[in-house]
Amino acid sequence: MIKVNRKGEVWVFIEQHEGKLEDIGLELLGRARTLGNELGVEVGAVLVGDNVKSMAEKICHYGADKVYVLENPLLGHYQTNSYSKAIYDLIHKYEPQIMIFGASACGRDLAPRVASAAKAGLTADCTDLCIGDHEVKKTNTVHKKLLLQIRPAFGGNIIATIINYDRWPQMATVREGVMPMPELQADRKGKIIVEQVHIGNDELPLEILNEHKREKKVNLKASRIIVAGGAGVGSKENFRFIWDLANALGASPGATRAAVDLGFIDRDHQVGQTGTTVRPSLYIAVGISGAIQHQAGMCESQKIIAINNDPDAPIFNVAHYKIVGDLNTVVPTMIKSIKARV
Amino acid sequence: MTPKTGNLQNKTANPNGLVLKPLNKEVKLAYNCVVLIKQVPDTKKITGEAMNDDGTVNRGALPAIFNPEDLNALELALDIKDQYGGAVTVITMGLPSASDILRQSLYRGADEAILVTDRRCAASDTLATSYILSAAVKKLDYDIVLCGRQAIDGDTAQVGPQLAEKLGIPQVTYVEELLSLDGESMTARRNIGNGWQEVRCEMPLLVTVIDEANEPRVASARKLMKNKNALTPVEVEVSARQGNPDASAEKIAELVKRKTQELQENGLLIKQWDLDDIEADLTWCGRDGSPTKVHRIQSVVLSAKDSKFVEPTEQGVADMIHELISDKTIS
Fold first, then answer.
1. What is the predicted pLDDT for the residue at B44?
2. How large a percentage of chain A has pLDDT more than 70?
3. Which residues of B touch A110 (CB under 8 A)?
4. Which CATH superfamily hosts domain A220-341?
5. Does residue B48 sit at the A interface (CB-CB below 8 Å)?
6. What is the spatial order of strands in the sheet that A98-102 belongs to?
7. This prediction's pTM
């Protein structure tokens, strides 16, 4: 653990696989920039791998003031122990006040290991991060400018704001897609700092025998319009209404967990707390009751249309356009209307 | 306890048909598995009644259940025992009432159950929890430590990796299939979200298990009959007091002693450890050991700012589409 300090930087772990930057790290740089500005400190990006230095410049274009490059041929494949050792050593050397990771499969495997070694606090799956003060009434002390780590808890039924004021760095993982990708500024420059990393055999306990990556069937995060269906759609056959409406709009089809579990559509299309978090221009919720876990993944959409035959469905609370009616007639009417206009 | 070594004959009976490389030295064929389990409120059953006025959740109003992915972890451990031999020990840290899930583990085939309970554990965050669990696990002889990927009350998935770090052993997270154990190492398939990865790792190690890994078995009637009266020392004491409200302290102590002895003789006394038993350093436990603190809790009230009803008619829908085209939501 490191001491509470006001000069420490705001750090982001930059995820890369085989020389390709993952979106999540760049998304986080946008927020780190805001946090750094508010605290008056620099934003550092932590890039780990083998022969990755060439990516550092691009990372500066997304808002980093510095890129710490941790390079070693033994870091070519991600392993929890080697990566956490490299990051832990870096934390001890530079004492950042904040470090954030993506809540991806890799980030959720790595961040707790680093936090445990650093004996620091870690908040999982944040949906928002900002700076604020915290008052401890018992001792009448105010801790100023802490990282407020905001996350859903209890299956999404409550929103908890977590802080840590006595053992730093303040660490958090952040869900993919909840923070907008910052704009690329090609003229932005930063400092590139190459660090020596010592990796021993102890830090490489895994033998990776085989790996298979697959592309997702749909990129919901990049979709301007999403037409999503829930259990209320009724059947896989009926789900063609979702596909048809999506086609008419040039949109991507989405679904609730219930619809996925019922086999209406592939899991890649799932929106919500355990699926993808989306913020499209238009979200059309068809036959979706609106469980809080689903709402958490789509409530930031700019416009929401909800179609449901139950006027009490919670989805109507977040909808801008509420259509109480039978989807079997409303959806074809919409398709007809769109085709007539466009 | 099952011997930790065996001969190759046992191995050929393995239903998976995995072939073990011939070795001259004695090959270890039985594995000690320690499974960390948690009792959680069933967050899927949250209704208005379970919410307090200040937006916090009234845990007492929700049914307490065996954390779902911990059941998958237990199943994987029992599977290892069925195939290779060895013993399965389950540990939970929690309130005395968490002994329910320990009994449920015994009904399914766990050999030993341990309750870690202590008031000084209260308010532990994931870091303090993993420290306390590590102190308990260190008291045991283990080859594989198993946990569910995450618990449904917090969904953090942090305790597994943090526990592995505290134990100083490697972690293999998101295990969806165990491929083989060869005496020294484990080969498993991990689900890495956008694909899978097969890894080999030397033991001892920690795995976190996902719900796709298996279908947890149900309780065996025979094991249920055998273990349904298994109790923790704290339960023995509570039942002695409740059964004899007018008895003196000496009398209660006598009853407790007799009952405890009887349970012990029948192998029905669930082990109970406090922080002293596991020699935990209190600096790292409970509130003091927890760097994360709650700043604020809010209930979730999401609502759209400008909302209107649209008639489910051709005109209503057409007007809406027109509006969305004119504000360029639909291009």
1. 74
2. 100
3. 161
4. TPP-binding domain (3.40.50.1220)
5. no
6. A122-126, A170-174, A98-102, A10-14, A43-49, A66-71, A191-195
7. 0.87
